[in-house]
Specification:
Elements (H helix, E strand, L loop, with lengths): L1 H17 L9 H19 L25 E2 H9 L3 H5 L1 H6 L4 E2 L22
Antiparallel strand pairs: 1-2
Length: about 120
């Protein structure tokens, strides 16, 4: 795995230097990569190992999920990232606010407009 990481980092460095990959105004690329790597590590270390694809819900293959795209608990993820005492420091009110919160991300795409609603505004199609 380490060998692949070196190849990835070398290729990323080359693309950054060439201008193909933008690092962002405040180094956003670094923070995005750190959050993505942390989420991948969280999934690998804490969730059941099913391989790259989770078992299909209801037996329908079309209802399968990629393991790395699974929704994860914000409370558990922050404990994994910041330590078990994170919520003791953040406080009960903060923990209660996130008790039902889940997050999923696998990449970031910079966008100028919302693509979830067609330009004609009719999202009922």
């Amino acid at each position: 795995m380490g060998c692949n990481l070196y190849k990835f980092l070398d290729a990323l460095e080359e693309k950054i230097i060439s201008g193909m990959v933008d690092i962002g105004k405040s180094g956003g690329l670094a923070s995005h990569l750190l959050w993505l790597l942390a989420k991948d590590l969280y999934v690998c270390c804490t969730l059941p190992s099913y391989g790259p694809v989770m078992p299909a819900k209801g037996g329908h293959k079309w209802n399968s999920e990629l393991t790395d795209c699974w929704m994860i608990s914000v409370i558990e993820y922050f404990c994994f990232i910041f330590g078990e005492n994170f919520w003791d420091i953040a406080g009960k009110e903060a923990k209660d606010a996130f008790k039902d919160a889940f997050v999923n991300f696998s990449h970031w795409v910079s966008m100028d407009k919302n693509i979830s609603v067609p330009e004609d505004g009719d999202d009922q199609k």
